Amino acid sequence: MSGRTERTMGYRVIKKILPLSIFIGLTFAASAMAGPEEDRLAIVKYYAERFPDVPLQEFANGLYAFDEDAREQWIEMEDFPPYEIAIEDGQALFEAPFANGKSYADCFANGGIGVRQDYPYFDTDAGEVMTLELMINRCRESNGEELLPYQIGDLAAISAYMAYTSRGNTINVKVPQDNPAAVAAYETGKQYYYTRRGQLNFACISCHLQSAGLKLRADRLSSSLGHATHWPVYRSKWGEIGTLQKRFAECNVQVFSKPLEAQSIEYRNLEYFLTYMSNGFELNGPATRR
Amino acid sequence: MKNNFVLLIVSAFLFAGCGQATDTGDESQDMATTSFADVYAAAEKALAEANARRNVWSKTEEMLSDAKTAFDNGDDDAAIDLATEAKLQAELAVTQADFEEDAWRSRVLAE
Question: What distance in Å separates residue A74's CA from the closest CA in chain B?
Fold first, then answer.
């Protein structure tokens, strides 16, 4: 074969491959740059196709959506749910007035009752994502009270009570498309979710999207769809109620990655993205998990 | 007199030998100190870079701390091994962060 023929064949191959490469590249680029609603619909479609027998709202129940044995145990546990004490404690804390006579009710819309579905939201003035737990502490701070630890304890209990008053409400997180900072916050949350990290080189999606429904040792992995509906959660392995960002930190540790600080910008943006993916789901927190 | 002279010569050689031995020990310790200090400093620098990228592997800081403890306890070999491993982990974390800067896009679901 002459050099000219080789070059001609090479040109033909390139000519055939190039459009395909450009198409694949543009598809990836387009999906990476797709807006929040396109992302959400893509994830809904992915799970609908992968688990055709699981009704959409069932994904809010995590692994119990597709593990019958675990589901039976979970339903039995719900007869006397271990998070009930946290709800009672949280209500007492929520209703107790601050030293200045004001209370949490003064800091939130509708007196803080039934509002969890609107969190997190992007605060245009502050230029950052606000989670419910962050706002609980901001409320304390603005009323001269000490800040509470974010992952467990009193703050998780207050959050549990506020979640309980929001049960049945539909998650309605907004990413205003006319606000570049809000879109950027959503995008960095999305990037975090898809980025591999830690010594095990895992991304959030490695377990909760690509391997959802599969077993990892004795546990079945939950789906990213519906992940944000049920927090705070009483986990048997924790022996107490904890917030979603406690779980973020735990996930990091499990892949041998140093966890970030609770309510760091990264975790807030991640919560923003993850909760948007559950838009349209009914809140069902607090909940129990293994 | 002759005996005293022999004793003096032997003593001189002994002292010289001791001096030589002492010099070699100090030099060895100095070399270990220098080597550990270099590796430790390089590991700290790599770790700072990984921290700046918000991507530190969970065992790296503990490993570097253990290296310092081992060195303080005189276990130079273990100290250098641990510091070297910590440096490698931190460098890999930075490489991972660099790679993921674009790689994550290829995993995003499309409709």
Answer: 31
B45–chain A Cβ distance below 8 A for any pair: no
A19 or A182, which is more confident? A182
Band of pLDDT at residue A66, cut at 50, 70 and 90: confident
Q: Establish if A191 touches chain B: CB-CB under 8 angstroms.
A: yes
**Is residue A209 within 8 angstroms of chain B, CB to CB?**
yes
Q: How far is B15 from chain A (nearest CA, A)?
A: 54
The residue of chain B with its CA nearest to that of A206 is B107
Please answer yes or no on whether B110 and A31 come within 8 Å at the CB atom. yes
Residue B110: which of A27, A256, A258 has the nearest Cβ? A27
List the domain boundaries for chain B: 32-107
Side-chain-side CA neighbours of B27 within 13 Å: the count stands at 6
Q: Residue A53 — very low, low, confident or very high, per pLDDT cuts 50/70/90?
A: very high
In a 3-state reduction of DSSP, which class is residue A216? strand
How far is A142 from A163, CA to CA, in rounded Å? 22
Is the entire prediction scored with pTM above 0.90? no
| Beta carbons of B109 and A46 less than 8 angstroms apart | yes
Residues contacting B84, CB < 8 A, separation 6+: B39, B43
CATH number of A84-164: 1.10.760.10
What is the per-residue pLDDT across B51-84, written as a single tens digit (0 to 9) for each?
A: 999 999 999 999 999 999 999 999 999 999 999 9
CATH number of A37-81+176-289, picked from 3.30.200.20, 1.10.760.10, 2.170.270.10, 3.40.50.2300: 1.10.760.10
CB A257 within 8 A of CB B57: yes
pLDDT for A17 beyond 70: no
Q: Judge if A37-81+176-289 and A84-164 fold alike in CATH terms.
A: yes
Of A139, A241, A235, A264, the closest CA to residue A148 belongs to A139
Active site residues of A: 251
Return mean pLDDT, chain A: 90
How do the domains of chain A map onto residue ranges?
Answer: 37-81+176-289, 84-164
pLDDT at position A223:
93
- Closest Cα in chain B, distance from residue A179 (Å): 22
| Residues on chain A touching B110 (C-beta within 8 angstroms) | 27-28, 30-31, 34, 42
pLDDT tens string A86-140: 999 999 999 999 999 999 999 999 999 999 999 999 999 999 999 999 999 999 9
Which whole-number Å values give the CA distances from A167 to A119, A120, A281, B42, B93, in the listed order?
14, 16, 11, 53, 41
Question: Which residues in chain A have Cβ-Cβ distances shorter than 8 Å to B105?
Answer: 28-29, 31-32, 194
